[in-house]
């Protein structure tokens, strides 16, 4: 057997000890491997369901006797519930169950035990006060209006600087700092600054952005005896099962979590939220299935967001561009609670992206009385890139260097934090080369201004994880007719994981993809796979499917060898046919082999093995952007984006393109229009909707090119795959901001780059031009 | 939404009577529903009864030519206005305004009557947790709050801006609305129909509770008149105007002989800048004139803490519109 | 608390359904709850996203801003009514081919908007295709491929033979 399972299970915190699977003897897909399915465009396997409306999302579950739940939410940013009376609501016909702090279990806690399921202290507008299950969505809303609550409003704080004042209203008893600052230093950053010929010091801010997945958070819960089933809109069925079982005191095998299709998550559905347990309890209380889906307002208020940041950045460099120091003081505005356990790692990119001996970062999380943040597609990195990549651009201008030259001059081939080599030391260089070549960076000729319109170009880079890791498991079942069921407990959150996994299985087994079905999204039907987060599904689960398929193929060839009276080593499968090397006549179809075996079944089990220990595995990318700025109206038009992203081996170019275009699109929104607006005096969220929270429309997208970067990374896993889900969003916004500067000589340091900000900056620029200061020297060194 | 009854009526008299009935019941008329239903979902409007206007036989729909100009029936959809060939020829700014308003779906649903009567999108007004002045409360929270989208003109006690793109275009055309109440019909120039909300009339129009809007009458324009509607939005499409400009100009030998300028997105009602219009008449069409006129048009603008950028934006759009309309090419 | 239900006949995808509905029930909720036609999605419920787009008398509209009782004498088409027997509508086929969706939650609305366009404009230009979906948000950012799918389908409708030939060669 080539695969040995289980070395050490959950033993302490030592990373090495946590590797639970050892795989040896697996073949690898190296750079010379010839493929028939992998690397080719393949449309989504669930396409038919999605275009016909048959795909069943959690929101679409319709069970006999199903009730609909609605949640009463705090109207105050900070308040105490003095009294709650649900009597009138209970008496309303059609109402079956009501939960609030008056009757809900008192021992279920949430948000790092800082809140109960229904807490009497409310810390943001949208915090859960009560929930009702009724025979229709309308009845549930009627019932909410009849719940009488006496609130005691408490002092609140929204603005980060105010929250850090000693006398600020306290979001939590211990104050508004999440923890002690996280400090990282290598070398001597202060000395590095002193060594520098040029220093850039600027403060950048990024906004609170809201995921606004089109399918809201929520689930349909029902009990059969003591068995709970949850149709949950989640990125992690096993994570949800574990948490719900723990909160409700149920054994894990009594909880089943199902998620066939999901209408977007982008990180916000990687943890279970209160409503899941609320739905389960309402279902228990009423004896009916209960569907609890958030409405759009609640989705904006209470289901996570990308934390706003304030980043004070200092860069020091020698005259030739060599970095001598990188310093960043970072405030991360986490909202009223920590959801995922830790704030976004904004500091990481400062520590890794550029070669620099002297680096210091200090990051603190700050509580405010607004909805909690949670991971949002490349959390931390999107925020960090907006500041760091703009600061690098400012440095390049100050040094009169091309921004690309500056980046190449400070290229790091190693992981400076861990002092280990990178598995693909030149991956970022390849990205720079391909993106700039396809864009025409070096040869760009700025068109002459037409009227008030100015053009400019910008570049930005990123780095991210996405290596994938254990544990993840998969089964491959070969049916009597030669078809294959791939079973794994992962999720397809819209990324195309289902299709990519089928391609891996088809390739190993030498079968056309039509003969493969992938079954996922059900804790009762498949083995454990991790939460779909960190751009790791194809890189974590793909290798498990690969290992399972290798094992199934081994068994299949053993049987075929007996039937063909040959040695298994001489057999190969192509296009569903088992062939003997050099003997074209001596062959059997896979269906003939499995047919002879049926009803006995070949089952391959696969586990995801560990990553290489001696190397650091990261993903990289670069984007070049051209914008047009109308200096009279402040309108920014993103004309084109050329992207090159290292994601290891490309399994399905169609899905990779779609991830890249989707990431760029979200990046355009982050750069230009998306921002949660809060009235700081009143604590009110003013745009908890899709009208004034403006995500890009079809008319807002630029022309986009994705230049494939196909660099199999065998340090990551035998398939050479790394993730692509999150990274494409990272460089877009800073590249746009840099291009805007290139176009008009105005630096915008606050995301999003609103007209308000741009027109104000242009007015300031005009004033300083009036005072005859050349526009390009007022920027840069300061 | 809270529960309500839904009724159909057969005559205008019956409809007006129902709308005006006293007592607790709040009766509202439903046409396209694209604004009313959103108000009801947020409980800003809580009618106990809705009257379906769409099947009311005497309520006019469609676009017709008249001796003087054209008439648009209240039930005419935005799509019809956008695509009507005669309107496009005679009043291009109207078709342009329709084309940049909302979305194809909303334009298929929404009627011109409803568009003119729609309520502000102010995020305090639309927030269920806020009892703003316009909803009967004591204060306008935008005045010292997040007012980046709010009024430069006519603000106080309400600083919301009127959301319609069609209304400024129609105001520039000096349209008249034909209203029908229990006592009969009246004709009101749009310039009077829109009136800044006041203590006892916390709405943007002079429409009485028991009145229906029947028709919009457009006077003819002299040959050679040119018009346009320009709109600045946060996105390329599907947003309410940050600032819009409806402009009409007639030129004779490089001299402006007629000019009308109405701004949208800057006041609780569509905002005609009459003084700037008068200054334009007789002036020579060139960039210097337009820059001066733009300054003049915005001279009385009073910015709040976050909306000064709209002054710059409005000036730019005024200049641009005038340049476009007087460009010989 | 609830108001009087009205007996309402809805013609959905060519079939008449008689339902007793509260007047406040939107067409969207009637489809999703009373008829279990869940292909039409509820996202914002305020006319801000387009996910609930259906055809009413052939024209694209938001089902969340229509009262079901207000749709009595109108012909409604939903995503479930597009495919004829087992044959997909050219738009549905094109969406699969062009990878015009990721999570799929806006897809029904996008397809119905384009269907509304093709009903009235059988040979649209690229700008018309873009304008037809300006009222449909896609959070995954599949817009580019949605436009591509619109183009593919329009060509397929206009020249079925050529389009099919082009398909088989790629």
What does this structure look like?
The complex is a heterotrimer of chains A (782), B (329) and C (170). Chain A folds into 3 domains: 3-56 and 468-607, Aldehyde oxidase/xanthine dehydrogenase, molybdopterin binding domain (Aldehyde Oxidoreductase, domain 4), CATH 3.30.365; 61-154 and 215-263 and 269-302, Aldehyde Oxidoreductase, domain 3 (Alpha-Beta Complex); 308-467 and 614-770, Aldehyde Oxidoreductase, domain 4 (2-Layer Sandwich). Helix content of chain A is 26%, strand content 25%. Chain A has 18 helices and 34 strands. Chain A is globular. Mean pLDDT of chain A is 94; it is low at 1-20 and 773-782. The longest helix of chain B has 18 residues, at 309-326. Chain B has helices at 12-20, 36-41, 78-83, 85-90, 92-99, 104-109, 112-117, 166-172, 190-193, 274-280, 287-297, 309-326, and strands at 5-8, 27-30, 49-52, 63-65, 70-73, 176-181, 184-189, 212-218, 225-232, 243-252, 255-264, 271-272. In chain B, β11 (255-264) and β12 (271-272) form a beta hairpin. Chain B has a domain at 225-326: CO dehydrogenase flavoprotein, C-terminal domain (Enolase-like, domain 1). Chain B has 329 residues and is α+β, with helices and mostly antiparallel strands. The model of chain B has no long low-confidence stretch (mean pLDDT 96). Chain C is 37% helix and 15% strand. Chain C starts with 5 loop residues before the first strand and ends with a helix. Mean pLDDT of chain C is 94; it is low at 166-170. Chains A and C meet through α1, α3 and α16 of A and α1, α2, α3 and α5 of C.
What is the topology?
The complex is a heterotrimer of chains A (782), B (329) and C (170).
Chain A: E1 3-5, E2 21-23, H1 47-52, E3 67-73, E4 79-85, H2 87-91, E5 95-100, E6 109-110, E7 115-116, E8 121-122, E9 128-134, H3 137-146, E10 148-153, H4 160-163, E11 182-186, H5 189-195, E12 198-206, E13 218-224, E14 227-232, H6 237-248, E15 255-258, H7 274-286, E16 290-293, H8 296-302, E17 308-317, E18 323-335, H9 347-352, E19 359-367, H10 381-399, H11 403-409, E20 414-415, E21 420-421, H12 427-439, E22 453-464, E23 473-478, E24 484-487, H13 497-509, E25 516-519, H14 537-564, E26 571-574, E27 577-580, E28 583-589, H15 590-597, E29 602-607, E30 619-630, E31 635-646, H16 653-672, E32 678-679, E33 684-685, E34 703-709, H17 732-744, H18 755-770
Parallel strand pairs in A: 3-16, 14-15, 18-19, 24-25, 31-34
Antiparallel strand pairs in A: 1-2, 3-9, 4-8, 4-10, 5-9, 6-7, 11-19, 12-17, 13-14, 13-16, 17-18, 20-21, 22-30, 23-24, 23-29, 26-27, 27-28, 30-31, 32-33
Helix pairs in contact in A: 10-11, 10-17, 13-14, 14-15, 16-17
Chain B: E1 5-8, H1 12-20, E2 27-30, H2 36-41, E3 49-52, E4 63-65, E5 70-73, H3 78-83, H4 85-90, H5 92-99, H6 104-109, H7 112-117, H8 166-172, E6 176-181, E7 184-189, H9 190-193, E8 212-218, E9 225-232, E10 243-252, E11 255-264, E12 271-272, H10 274-280, H11 287-297, H12 309-326
Helix pairs in contact in B: 10-11, 11-12
Chain C: E1 6-12, E2 15-21, H1 27-34, E3 53-56, E4 59-62, E5 75-77, H2 90-97, H3 107-120, H4 126-132, H5 143-158, H6 160-169
Parallel strand pairs in C: 1-5
Antiparallel strand pairs in C: 1-2, 3-4, 3-5
């Amino acid at each position: 057997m080539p695969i040995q399972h289980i070395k050490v299970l959950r033993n302490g915190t030592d990373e090495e000890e946590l590797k639970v699977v050892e795989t040896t003897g697996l073949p690898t897909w190296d750079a010379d491997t010839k493929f028939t399915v992998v690397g080719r465009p393949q449309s989504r396997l669930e396409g038919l369901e999605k275009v016909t409306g048959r795909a069943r999302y959690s929101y679409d579950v319709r069970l006999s006797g199903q009730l609909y739940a609605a949640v009463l939410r705090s109207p105050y940013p900070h308040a105490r519930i003095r009294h709650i009376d649900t009597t009138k609501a209970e008496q309303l016909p059609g109402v079956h169950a009501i939960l609030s702090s008056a009757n809900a279990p008192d021992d279920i806690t949430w948000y790092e035990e800082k809140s109960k399921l229904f807490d009497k202290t409310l810390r943001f507008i949208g915090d859960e006060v009560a929930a009702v299950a009724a025979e229709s969505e309308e009845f549930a809303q009627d019932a909410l209006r009849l719940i009488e609550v006496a609130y005691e409003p408490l002092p609140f704080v929204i603005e980060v600087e105010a929250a850090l004042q000693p006398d600020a209203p306290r979001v939590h008893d211990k104050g508004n700092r999440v923890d002690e600052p996280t400090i990282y230093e290598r070398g001597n950053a202060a000395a590095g600054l002193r060594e520098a010929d040029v220093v850039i010091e600027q403060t950048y801010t990024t906004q609170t952005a809201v995921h606004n997945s089109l399918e809201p958070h929520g689930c349909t819960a029902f009990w059969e005896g003591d068995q709970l089933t949850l149709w949950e809109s989640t990125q992690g069925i096993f994570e949800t099962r574990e948490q719900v079982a723990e909160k409700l005191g149920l054994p894990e095998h009594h909880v089943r979590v199902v998620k066939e299709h999901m209408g977007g998550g982008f990180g916000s559905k990687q943890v279970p939220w209160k409503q899941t347990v609320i739905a389960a309890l309402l279902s228990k209380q009423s004896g009916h299935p209960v569907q609890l889906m958030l409405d759009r307002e609640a989705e904006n208020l209470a289901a996570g967001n990308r934390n706003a940041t304030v980043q004070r950045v200092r860069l020091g460099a020698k005259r030739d561009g060599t970095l001598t120091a990188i310093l960043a003081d970072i405030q991360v505005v986490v909202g009223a609670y920590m959801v995922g356990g830790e704030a976004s790692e904004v500091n990481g990119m400062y520590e890794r992206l550029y070669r620099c001996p002297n680096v210091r970062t200090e990051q603190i999380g700050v509580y405010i009385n607004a909805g909690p943040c949670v991971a949002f597609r490349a959390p931390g990195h999107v925020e960090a890139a907006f500041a760091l990549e703009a600061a690098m651009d400012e440095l390049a201008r100050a040094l009169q260097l091309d921004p690309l030259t500056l980046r190449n001059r400070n290229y790091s081939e190693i992981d400076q934090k861990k002092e280990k080599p990178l598995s693909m030391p030149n991956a970022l260089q390849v990205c720079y080369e391909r993106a700039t070549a396809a864009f025409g960076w070096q040869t760009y000729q700025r068109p002459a201004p037409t009227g008030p319109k100015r053009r400019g170009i910008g570049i930005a880079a990123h780095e991210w994880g996405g290596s994938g890791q254990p544990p993840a498991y998969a089964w491959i079942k070969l049916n009597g007719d030669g078809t294959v069921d791939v079973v794994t407990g992962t999720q397809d959150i819209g990324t195309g994981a289902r299709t990519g996994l089928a391609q891996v299985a088809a390739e190993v087994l030498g079968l056309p993809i039509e003969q493969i079905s992938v079954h996922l999204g059900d804790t009762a039907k498949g083995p454990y796979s991790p939460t779909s987060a960190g751009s790791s599904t194809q890189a974590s689960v793909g290798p498990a499917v690969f290992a399972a398929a290798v094992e199934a193929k081994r068994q299949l060839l053993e049987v075929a060898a007996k039937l063909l009276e040959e040695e298994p080593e001489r057999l190969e499968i192509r296009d569903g046919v088992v062939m003997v090397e050099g003997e074209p006549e001596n062959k059997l179809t896979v269906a003939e082999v499995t047919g002879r075996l049926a009803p006995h079944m070949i089952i391959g089990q696969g586990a995801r093995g560990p990553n290489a220990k001696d190397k650091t595995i990261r993903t990289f990318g670069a984007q070049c952007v051209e914008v047009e700025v109308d200096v009279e109206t402040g309108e920014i038009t993103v004309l084109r984006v050329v992207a090159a992203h290292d994601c290891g081996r490309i399994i399905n170019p169609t899905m990779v393109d779609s991830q890249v275009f989707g990431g760029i699109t979200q990046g355009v929104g982050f750069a230009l229009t998306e921002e949660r607006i809060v009235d700081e005096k009143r604590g009110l969220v003013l745009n908890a909707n899709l009208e004034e929270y403006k995500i890009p429309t079809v008319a807002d997208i630029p022309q986009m090119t994705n230049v494939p970067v196909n660099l199999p990374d065998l340090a990551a896993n035998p398939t050479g795959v790394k993730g692509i889900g999150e990274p494409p969003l990272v460089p877009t916004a800073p590249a746009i901001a840099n291009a805007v500067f290139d176009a008009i000589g105005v630096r915008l340091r606050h995301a999003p780059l609103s007209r308000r900000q741009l027109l104000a900056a242009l007015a300031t620029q005009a004033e300083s031009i009036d005072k005859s200061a050349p526009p390009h020297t007022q920027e840069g060194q300061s | 939404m809270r529960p309500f009854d839904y009724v159909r009526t057969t005559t205008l008299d019956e409809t007006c009577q129902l709308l005006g009935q006293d007592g607790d019941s709040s009766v509202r008329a439903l046409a396209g529903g694209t604004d009313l239903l959103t108000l009801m979902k947020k409980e800003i409007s809580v009618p106990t009864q809705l009257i379906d206007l769409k099947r009311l036989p005497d309520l006019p729909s469609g676009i017709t030519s008249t001796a003087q100009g054209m008439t648009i029936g209240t039930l005419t959809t935005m799509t019809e206005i956008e695509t009507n060939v005669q309107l496009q020829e005679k009043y291009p700014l109207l078709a342009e305004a329709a084309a940049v308003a909302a979305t194809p779906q909303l334009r298929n649903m929404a009627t011109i009557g409803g568009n003119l009567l729609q309520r502000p999108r102010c995020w305090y007004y639309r927030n269920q947790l806020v009892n703003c002045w316009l909803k009967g409360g004591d204060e306008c929270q935008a005045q010292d709050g997040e007012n980046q989208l709010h009024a430069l003109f006519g603000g106080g006690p309400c600083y919301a801006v009127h959301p319609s793109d069609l209304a400024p275009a129609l105001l520039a055309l000096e349209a008249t609305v034909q209203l029908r109440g229990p006592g009969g019909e009246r004709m009101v120039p749009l310039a009077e129909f829109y009136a800044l909300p006041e203590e006892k009339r916390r709405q943007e129009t002079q429409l009485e509770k028991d009145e229906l809007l029947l028709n919009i009458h457009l006077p003819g324009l002299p040959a050679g008149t040119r018009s346009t509607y320009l709109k600045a939005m946060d996105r390329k499409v599907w947003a309410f105007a940050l600032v819009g400009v409806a402009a009409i100009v007639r030129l004779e030998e490089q001299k402006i002989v007629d000019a009308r300028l109405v701004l949208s997105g800057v006041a609780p009602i569509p905002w005609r800048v009459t003084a700037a219009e008068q200054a334009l008449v007789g002036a020579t069409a060139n960039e210097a004139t337009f820059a001066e006129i733009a300054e003049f048009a915005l001279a009385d603008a009073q910015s709040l803490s976050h909306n000064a950028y709209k002054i710059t934006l409005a000036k730019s759009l005024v200049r641009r519109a005038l340049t476009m309309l007087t460009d010989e090419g | 608390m609830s108001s009087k239900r009205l007996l309402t006949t809805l013609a959905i995808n060519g079939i008449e359904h008689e339902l007793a509905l509260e007047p406040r029930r939107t067409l969207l909720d009637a489809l999703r709850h009373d008829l279990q036609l869940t292909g039409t999605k509820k996202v914002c419920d305020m006319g801000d996203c387009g996910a609930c787009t259906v055809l009413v008398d052939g024209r694209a509209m938001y089902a969340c801003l229509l009262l079901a009782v207000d749709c009595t004498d109108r012909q409604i088409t939903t995503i479930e009514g597009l495919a004829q027997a087992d044959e997909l509508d050219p738009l549905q086929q094109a969406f699969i081919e062009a990878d015009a969706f990721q999570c799929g939650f806006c897809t029904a609305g996008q397809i119905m908007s384009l269907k509304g366009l093709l009903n009235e404009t059988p040979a649209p230009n690229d700008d018309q295709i873009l304008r037809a979906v300006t009222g449909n948000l896609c959070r995954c950012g599949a817009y580019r491929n949605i436009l591509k799918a619109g183009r593919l389908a329009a060509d397929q409708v206009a020249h079925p033979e050529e389009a099919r030939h082009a398909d088989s060669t790629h």
